[in-house]
Amino acid sequence: MDFTSQEYAEMHFVYGYCNGNALAARREYEARYPDRRIPSSAVFSRLHQRLVESGTVHKHHNEVGRGVVHDVGAEDLVLGMVLDDPETSTRDVAREVGLSNWKVWDILRKNKIKPFHINPVQALEETDFEPRVQFCRWLLNSDMEQYEFFKKILWTDESLFTREGVFNTHNMHHWSEQNTHATKERAFQRRFRVNVWAGVLGDQY
Q1: Would you say 69 and 98 are in contact if contact means Cβ atoms under 8 Å apart?
Q2: CA-based angle 50:83:101, to the nearest 5?
Q3: What pLDDT is attached to residue 72?
Q4: Residues 6 or more apart whose Cβ sits within 8 Å of residue 121
Q5: pLDDT on residue 64
Q6: Same domain (yes/no): 9, 41
Q7: What's the structural domain count of the chain?
Q8: DUF4817 domain: which residues (predicted)?
Q9: In a domain, 87, yes or no
């Protein structure tokens, strides 16, 4: 679904208001028109490029479905899309901008942006944090007070089967110049699940 001429005009006004910063323009546009469909930052850059080259706000027939076919500004578009959505894929970016997948990778590497894996973490309630801290303190103190305290603990592990399916960290990335240690909540406490359990006590299991 394309935008109207009025929407394009207002996008370009906001783009100029933000001194050609597509990311800032997207934020400003969303603040001004919260009830509208919000375009990606790449739309602002493409719109300006289209006006410069053709004098029209509407797409050329060779842009539809392929994104920008020119090299001019392609790097900014790729970086803008990744900053807008750090969990996007290079294939989606390539399809939107009109570049090959390897070219998108080349742009990201050139700008030192790497795909870091997202780490799954336990979803905690607000009341969970303090009891966990207290337990850790108790455990450390007990080990100091009782000889071989840890050998008296039944250590357990389990394999959890849930309705969430398999979380494939290989396919989950967060594009950034530095590792932001991005996380994704899963293994929620309110769920359907089946555990396979095993335990070790001393040298017995």
Answers
A1: yes
A2: 70
A3: 42
A4: 183, 184, 185, 186
A5: 44
A6: yes
A7: 2
A8: 4-57
A9: yes
Residue found under tokens 């103190």: 141
Q: At residue 88, what is the residue type?
A: T
Q: Report percent pLDDT > 90 for the chain.
A: 14
User: What is the rounded CA–CA span in Å between residue 198 and residue 205?
Assistant: 8
Residue 100: both structure tokens together: 């090959």
Q: Are residues 9 and 49 in the same domain?
A: yes
Output the 3-class SS for 59-81.
CCCCCCCCCCCCCCCHHHHHHHH
Q: Do residue 19 and residue 47 come from a single domain?
A: yes
Range of the domain at 85: 72-111
80 pLDDT above the threshold of 60:
yes
Rounded Cα distance between 81 and 58, Å, is 20
Strands (DSSP E) found in the chain = 114-117, 119-122, 154-162, 173-176, 183-186, 193-201
Amino acid at 123: A
CA pair distance 115, 174, nearest whole angstrom: 6
